Structure formats: C-alpha cells, structure tokens
Records
---
Amino acid sequence: MSTASVLHGISAEVAAFLLAASCAGCDEPGQLLCTACRAQLVPRPLRERTPGGLELRAALAYEGVAARCIRRLKGDGETLLARPLGAALSSVLSPVVAPSTWIVPVPTSRGAFRRRGYRVPELLIRRAGECPQRVLSLVRRSADQRGLGARARAQNVHGAMRARAEGDGAEAILVDDVVTTGATLDEAARALHVAGFTVVCAVALAATPKRAVFGEDSSGTHRRHDESHQ
Ligand SMILES: [Zn+2]
C-alpha cells in the first residue's frame, strides 16, 4: 500500500472520529474539547490538607467543565482527554518531583480496571510526563465511598492498602485523579509509611471544592463525585 493511500485511510478515520465526537465540556459537536472548554482546564491550583494532615495540591476544582471532562475520561473511556488533563496535573506534580522521588498512584480496584481497561491515576501521571510506580495494592475491597461522610469514609478504607516495596526512607508523592475527603490518600500514606517511605505530599488532578467536604461530614449532601477506587 502506498504512503498516500495509508494517509488517506488515516485521515478518513480521523474525520469520521471527529464527526462522531462532541466536546467533553459542553457537548458542542465536531471536536473532543473546544477552545473555550480547553481554557477551563488551565490549572488553578488548590492547596488543602487531608484529614490526616497530609499536604495536598490539586490542579483544578472538581466542578463544571473540569468535572465533566474527568467523568468522560473515567466513565466513558475517552482516553484522549488524558492528554489535556495530564498537562493540568503536570503543573502541580512536576514542581514537587525530585529525581529520587517515587511517584505512587493511588491503586485502582480490579473491578474498575476491568471495566475501563486502564488505571486513571497512572494514565494521568504518564501524560504528565512522569513515571508512575505501582507500589500500592488493595488488600481488601472497601464499600463504595459515595454517600459516606468524612468519618465513615476513613473507617471504610482503613487497612485497605498495602505497599509491595520497601521504602528504606525514600521519598514518595501520592497521586490521585479526584480527591473528595482525602480519606483514601490518608490510607495510602499510612500503607507507604508502614513500608518505610516518607510521604512528602499528595497531588491530585482535581479536588471537590473545599466547603463541600474537606474536614466536614458530607453525609447530608448529595453532590456528585467519584473517587477512583470504586
Ligand atoms: Zn466545549
């Protein structure tokens, strides 16, 4: 097959794909992410602390266009969105990474991996230009975090993770896609600490806006959120 005919085949596929696509942020047809929505993914970093006191930096608030794009990546298999979202993550991740730092994604449950075929935090880390190290694994299933308040979430995930490597004092940064209460990050930090790692901080693509859940009991609210471990 000639180069020209290969290119012709590819461009026809791309054209068909674009025709079928609609903007993840606003549903405008014809492209995966329109210019206006892309501008909404420009990082506006948030700094928080988890209930356990771990410092957390998030690139975006989990609302509006950012939340819709993340849901398309997590729920609809729209992996091309990992590139612009990974770029946003990189703005908070790259500044805290040193050459010897382990970049540890929060583990994905087997069910979620089977459903999606990819691990969202790992994909985002790669698209942020860094190398994820799959140190943590889930040792037991925890119930769906949605609908649970902050304290119930912490109890639900406690003891759910284990590190598969020895840290010997090495520095680690935890990475997750969406942080709601921070209970999952605290459990991940606990498991790393037990294995001898020093957890420097946690980094997330997005965090639910502060007043919604951080440090409060959210059981009375019915906000939409989805942490990555379900
Ligand atoms: Zn749009």
---
Amino acid sequence: MRRALIIGGTGLIGRATASRLIAAGWQVDLTGRDAARMPASLTAAGARFIAADRSDAGAVRAAAGDGADLIVDCLCYTAADAAVLLPLARASASTVMISASAVYVDAAGRHVNSDAPPDFGKPIREDQPTMAPAADGDYQSREGYGACKVAAEQVLLDSGAPVTVLRPGKVHGPWAARPREWVFVKRVLDRRPAVFLARRGADVAQTVAAANLAALIETAAVRPGRRILNSADPDAPSGLQIARTIAGLLHHSWDEVLLDETADPALGRHPWEARFPIVLDMTAALRLGYVPAGDYLTTVAAQVEWLTSAAAGLQGADALAWLSDGYFDPFLDYAREDNYLAELAG
Ligand SMILES: NC(=O)c1ccc[n+]([C@@H]2O[C@H](COP(=O)([O-])OP(=O)(O)OC[C@H]3O[C@@H](n4cnc5c(N)ncnc54)[C@H](OP(=O)(O)O)[C@@H]3O)[C@@H](O)[C@H]2O)c1
C-alpha cells in the first residue's frame, strides 16, 4: 500500500487531501500538535495521527520514517522549514510543498500583499517573476510571507529532489482556519435584506477548493517531478458571483447594492478585493493530467454546509475559533449599511 505523510494534516488542505488519497487506496498519516483535531471520519477510514510539532525537526523526521511514497508539507513557510523537509524529500518518491500565489510580482514589483495592488494584465503562469527570496524574513508579515515562501521553494527546487511546489489561490473548504465565505453566509443567517459590494462586485481574486488542491496533489504524487504548478478552481468568480452563489445555495434573496468608486470605501468590502483581476493559469497542471474536482459553485457547497452547521453549534466550539480574531468585522458593518440605506430612503 502506498503511504502518504501530510505535515500539518488536520487542517483545511490536509483533510481534503487525506480523504482523496484514502479513497484512492493510500495509507495516510497526518501530523499536527493536537490529536483532538484529528477528524474521526479520517481515523475511521484508516488514517493515523502522529503528534509532531513542525518546529521539532527530529519529530518531523521520525514521522517520515524511511521516507514515503508521498510527503505533503502544509507548513513550509521558510528556508529553514524547507531545510528540514529536504532530507525527507530526498528519501521519498514524491513531495508536494504548499507555497502560495502571493509569491508573484507584476512588472512594477507589486504583489497581493503590497500597499499598491498588483496588475498582472493576464492570467498568471508559473514563469511569472516572483518576489526576491528572503532567507531570514518574517513570514508572518505582509512583505515577508511571499518572500519567505520563495526562499523555501528555492531550497527545495535547487536540490533536484522530486518536489512539486504548488502555488494556490485563496483556498476554500470545510475547516478553513479563515473561511472567507463566512461574510456572505453570515449575512444570510442574519436575514440581511441587502448585500453591499464595492466596485460593483467585479473584483476577482482567484479561488481554489481544497478538493481541487487535493486532486492536483494526487496528480503530482503519481507523476513525481521537480516543478512549480499553480492551483486554482477552473473558474475565477468575482465577488458578485461568489455572493450570488452563496445566496443561491442557501435559498436566500437580497438586494444587491453595487457601489461605484465614489462610495464610502468602508462599504461593500469583502475578502476577494483585488483592484485588478488575479487569475491563475492552470495550463501546466492540466498538461500533467490534473482533472479538477469541480468548479467554484460545485465545490464551495461543502464549505457553506460546514459553515451553517458550525454556526448552529453542530461542529463543536473549535469549528468557530476564527470568529474571535476580528478579521470579519470590517466586512460585516451592518450599522454603516443601514445608515446608507436610511439616507437613500430619506
Ligand atoms: N488558506 C489559504 O487561502 C492559503 C492560500 C495559499 C497558500 N496557503 C498555504 O496553505 C498552508 C496552510 O494549509 P491549511 O490552510 O490547510 O492550514 P490550516 O487549516 O491552518 O491547518 C494547519 C494544520 O497544521 C497543524 N499545525 C499548525 N501549526 C503546527 C505546528 N507548529 N506543528 C505541527 N502542526 C501544526 C494544525 O493543527 P494543530 O494546530 O493542532 O497543530 C493543522 O492541522 C500554508 O503553507 C499556507 O501558506 C493557504
């Protein structure tokens, strides 16, 4: 039986990947710090949890043992992380490192975390320039995230080991640490009469279902190689299309308040804001034989279902941990919206 090890495996990407690989007949081991986060459904399907902190190189090595047919690293953020992964990658048939499309820069050097928004002008291919690598940067900062990912990518790719670097867009799926779709699900649960969208909801920031990432990981596993691949949904929905998709899935109707550039910039904000479209070109993955699990509409249903059940308290308190960090507050400023509507009416 082929064995896969998923480092940081009990989260969004790891769960989807484990489910997919188990269905395809793999033995799957998942690492994490907290055994309580191991999904019962995966344990029941034969997956094993291994406690190993990513910062403990010995524990990560022990989890890999003599190597695996596939190693997936969901926690490789820096060159130092990559250096820990490298000997495991050399001993394994195929390794997938989860990087990010945040590494790309446009002709003016702007990236998705810049103050000035990037303008790529067309779908981004893997040969698009990236940020300069930062071997010692702060990967948790806006400037450091992409630069540290590039440094990690280079350690792995320069080694010649069979490592596939994946550069996903904005990932969606059940158990997301920051489920962006909540901004629209929450509005439906609150029976809001209107959805507000800045720039008429036309912004596009590439999405990717964890299920599509998992499909690409399986493709890379059966075709080991040293390469970089984008990971994206087959479509690239706009903010307006995402709002409509979610309202449709939840059988809700609302007025769409499509704001133009003159509107209060605090109104109509959402997590897919992008002054210029950000779309990933998937030609390279498709050439390798990747078949997506589904488009945005098909795949986002799993996350919407999970969010409604978590909000109803059916998934345990852990499922809502992300609610407390304030990230969603600027997207759900109902008082400001009500004032706008009252002024309009009055
Ligand atoms: N989400 C996105 O939109 C997005 C976009 C592009 C790229 N990415 C990349 O995707 C990766 C994150 O994957 P994900 O979204 O699946 O993450 P996730 O949902 O946050 O899951 C992370 C997993 O790693 C475990 N973990 C966290 N810290 C750990 C540590 N120090 N040692 C061992 N285990 C640890 C967590 O469990 P415990 O906490 O119990 O340990 C959990 O199982 C990152 O490399 C990120 O750069 C994400």
